[in-house]
Amino acid sequence: xxSLTPALxxxxxxxxxxxxxxxxxxxxxxxxxxxxxxxVLSFGGRTFVGEDATYGTISDVxxxxxxxxxxxxxxxxxxxxxxxxxxxxLAAPTMQGAPVMVWMGAVNPSTGIPVPDPQLVFVGxxxxxxxxxxxxxxxxxxxVVSVFERLFEDDESARLSAGHHRSIFPNxxxxxxxxxxxxxxxWGVAGTPPAITTYSGGSGYSQRNQLV
Length: 212
Prior knowledge:
Number of domains: 2
CATH class of the largest domain: Mainly Beta
Low-confidence stretches: 67-71, 203-212
CATH topology of the largest domain: Phage tail proteins - horseshoe like beta roll fold
Number of strands: 12
């Protein structure tokens, strides 16, 4: 079973479909919408161009990779900035985390209009940029990571306590009146062993009681 719309699925089954890829990056204060080739296409309230007057063009996009284990889906995207100012702007720390969406679609060759509806194949955000420059050219490669990358963020400062709970949910009082907790539970750290440990029992059977 395909997840494509019937119209797009039918177009892609033709002998010579006119396929396109498009990328949108919602930079702070600027929406960058680029095609993987020359031309202009509009869909979903956005207009995609082969060359953006401010930030340049797409050089190449690596194959999308599925994440396994402790990694999330990611790919590399190389841009060809239109100038030094554009390159410096794209590599600025404020660009990190900008939302990225990638579509794959087909164009009706008779009308030049995208077949409804292009397939959204990736949703993520800009991560780490690498800027390469020489005498006659410059390029900037961005690691683009999935939105699931945030699931791997380290929360070592988290605590199972009313104070920490309120720091995240200021008006939530669910932990304010918790009682009967025999020992503290630490999140993200190994915790501190109790100062006193007692053992009771006999005849080969022992029971451990921790005093905290």
